[in-house]
Amino acid sequence: MPRLVELLGKAEADASRLFAVLRQDSKSESHVHVGDVHATDAEMALMLAKEQFTRREPCVSLWVVPYSAIGATSYDDPDLFTHVTDKSYRFGGSYREQQRPAGPRRKDR
Known about the structure:
- The chain is built from 3 helices and 3 strands; from the N terminus they run H-H-E-E-H-E.
- It has helices spanning 4-8, 12-17, 42-53; strands at residues 18-24, 32-38, 61-66.
- The protein has a domain at 4-73: Roll (Ubiquitin-like (UB roll)), CATH 3.10.20.
């Protein structure tokens, strides 16, 4: 599996100082990528991410991940995402709308 740095065409030295920032707005939500910071280590990246991405809106958690540690799929391998078995029955478009009887409705007492 290629690393994201290779797919983006970044140099190894740049990748070791580039961190992806993910924030979680509440405990019930998942972390979302909000941007990147350039830092010498993870501690400094957290400090810069806090200053940059929590100023306006509070959050409960921040993650910083070095780009050199992120694995990614290659664009050259589209067969990776093709399904082996037919699972079209899972999509709503394969079902017909049920027909309702046209008779009068019964009133509840």
